[in-house]
Design brief:
Elements: E1 2-8, E2 12-18, E3 27-28, E4 35-39, H1 50-61
Length: 93
């Protein structure tokens, strides 16, 4: 079952949990019992995890013009390891 938005002409908007097969059907208003129609709006992005929401926002911002890269991956200070390359059996070194 999913959560849908409906609106009653007299009482205003409300949410109703019902099966997907009944999503488009008129619903009864919980306040007055009158008919209510389904309302369509933007997805509830506030319920999305913060990292995914940040990625979606970055994607939206760069839709028309990609972000400018000022540094390539791997640039910066070289990694120095005093003991040479690690071996698979040397975990944590």
């Amino acid at each position: 079952m999913a959560l849908y938005d409906y609106a009653c002409a007299g009482c205003g908007p409300f949410e109703l949990r019902r099966p997907m097969a009944q999503a488009g059907d008129p619903a009864g208003c919980p306040g007055c019992g009158g008919p209510a129609t389904r309302q369509y709006g933007a997805p509830a992005v506030s319920r999305i995890a913060a990292p995914l929401r940040a990625a979606m926002e970055a994607d939206r911002r760069s839709a028309h013009e990609p972000a400018r890269v000022t540094r390539t991956a791997g640039s910066g200070a070289p990694h120095h390891h005093p003991h040479g390359p690690s071996r698979p059996w040397m975990l944590g070194h």
